[in-house]
């Protein structure tokens, strides 16, 4: 299922925290492509209360299973804030191209992004193994 930016869903808490992150980033270093990608998501998403977040939506600190559309390889990623990013351990920043592409999408959606080298990538979200809101954690 292909998705448009306005079909993304964010929790109120994620939206506020990410807006603050973008504002801090803008003050510290001016313009950046990752920030622009996340700003687009923030501007065009549906916002819901954390307690009403659908369990099949990728929120901050959700752990997802992706399947690469070109290779068929599966990977497990956790979407996190930049300070917690550890790509080798599967923790990807929401400001990275893949992180920004995942935020607010549902299981079954296809996400597309470009690598830092400019290579186009695409993957289907197969499952959400953990979502804080579905586990009753509304402040993570």
TrEMBL record:
Annotated GO biological process: DNA-templated transcription elongation; regulation of DNA-templated transcription elongation
Alphabetical keyword list: Kinase, Transferase
Residue ranges annotated for the Transcription elongation factor GreA/GreB C-terminal domain, each copy included: 54-128
Molecular function in Gene Ontology: DNA binding; kinase activity; RNA polymerase binding
PANTHER family named in the record: REGULATOR OF NUCLEOSIDE DIPHOSPHATE KINASE, TRANSCRIPTION ELONGATION FACTOR GREA
Protein name per Swiss-Prot or TrEMBL: Regulator of nucleoside diphosphate kinase
InterPro entries tied to this protein: GreA/GreB_C_sf, Tscrpt_elong_fac_GreA/B_C, Tscrpt_elong_fac_GreA/B_fam
Domain of life: Bacteria
